[in-house]
Sequence to fold (196 residues):
Amino acid sequence: MNALAWPPEFSRYGVTLAPIQHSQLEMIRHWRNDPSIANMMRSTALITAEQQCQWFTRIQHDRQQAYWMIYFRQEPIGVASLARINPSQGTAEPGLYIYPAHYRQNIVPFCVAFALHDVAFEQLQLHTLQSIVLATNTAALRFNLQCGYENMQQELSDDGRTWQWQQLTHQSYAKAKPAITRFIRYDQPQSTPQPH
Fold:
């Protein structure tokens, strides 16, 4: 891994996580503002083009957060992230969303999550991931449990919504992963996808 490259590009399970490019910002903003995505986020406010550019500038060299464009079969399909990266404690807060609905209800989300977890545990040498999920997002909660997460405490946000904290250790991930990876049959990408 290039020590200067941030975030590191990573390919596994037929998925590539590649650093976000400036030319992709408007597409990402469109995805993030879509109610099917926005309603599952902590902030549901509409993101302006200016706010999106400010966010992109902030994350460029911030090693406490990493954002990737998710590619599946060379197609950009969503965004994956690790926020609040704390190397000394070995922790981070993972996140991901997949925009095309036809990729949300099959093995592809597992491919993406496992690639993100592998980056966190193998490349960044983290020990624990702490995820926060809207308590009514039962599909995401079940998905995380299948990946090895354990439910922790709940919290109430200012807008009255309940959130569930979940935690994944490297050990619990290693234990849960084989039951699902045996169904993954996607070949690795032959080359790095080019931004659209």
In short: The mean pLDDT is 92. The radius of gyration is 16 Å. Residues 10-181 form a domain with the Aminopeptidase fold (CATH 3.40.630.30). The helical segments are 25-33, 35-38, 49-59, 108-123, 138-146, 170-181.
